[in-house]
Amino acid sequence: MHRNKREEVCRGIVVQSAGASYIVESSDASLSRCRTIPATRSDNEGATLVAVGDRVEFRPKPSETDMPEGVITRVFRRSSALLRKRDVRRNRSKERDQVIASNIDQLVVVSSADDPPLNRRLIDRYLAFAESEHLPVLVVINKMDLAEEDPVRELLLPYHRLGYRICYVSSFTDEGIEEFRTELKEKVSAFSGHSGVGKSTLINRLTGNGTLKTAETSTKTRKGVHTTSSAIMLSLPAGGYVIDTPGLREFNLSGITRENLRFYFREFLRIMPECNFSSCTHTVEPGCAVVRAAETGVIDYERYMSYLVLFGSLEPES
Ligand code: GDP
Ligand code: ZN
To answer: Under CATH, domain 100-251 is a member of which superfamily?
Structure first.
């Protein structure tokens, strides 16, 4: 049967946004540079038209470069989205939030055992964010070659007890990397974490360098991508993808308020009903069961301190 090539429709996943165009990976792993047109149809009304992680339908068109080109005809419904709040004053488009990455299966929170030192406040901030987004989370402690194993594991004990999955790794010695790979297999994992903890090194290690067959993956351009706060998606040899996102400060705690923060500390949930006031913020109220639990060691005191710090950093509701 004769098939008109121009009417052929392909499906793929957006792995990178590159200026006005997008790099789309098809199921056969080939990459196409695609643009949108006014008639591009989206299942995600009112949101960013195309984001890294989106499943799209595209029509190939003649290309004058090495890379095939195409036109995105449809963007499928997102199952999840990492948002960056737009500055209202500088925002001329109708969309309120910008989607940085979509269809994420889990958030990988990367910290380092040392250099920079393990920062529990930051881990708790990421965990609260993941809980607020209903995203499964994997905690990764990198640079285990720089620290004594036991004290690090002891520091993380409260998180094990809360049921968080934790991988202890070193991208230098390869310790724990296989177990880490297993946790990533067949999933779309968004990496987050403070700069310097080793995210890029880990991602290069996991993807085997240059999985994305474009010039844009050079270290230099990667940095460039970061400064514009967009995400990049790289495929894993065993299946699945990692998404390298800008720091959490960028994709902020948009959905979190002083009012709902308490629900994102899992250990509070069981205890909260025992507070004297049903609207207890677990800060200054008399008869607070959460404060009592923190003081008696029923819940981890440092976690409670993180709650207070986060609470203080959020705007009071007016
Ligand atoms: P990113 O900012 O999170 O992407 O961090 P980078 O990947 O740029 O790494 C920051 C620094 O930590 C670099 O100097 C890396 O060589 C180093 N580094 C990364 N992984 C490890 C590790 O497992 N052990 C040690 N000792 N250093 C590491
Ligand atoms: Zn309370």
So the answer is: P-loop containing nucleotide triphosphate hydrolases (3.40.50.300)
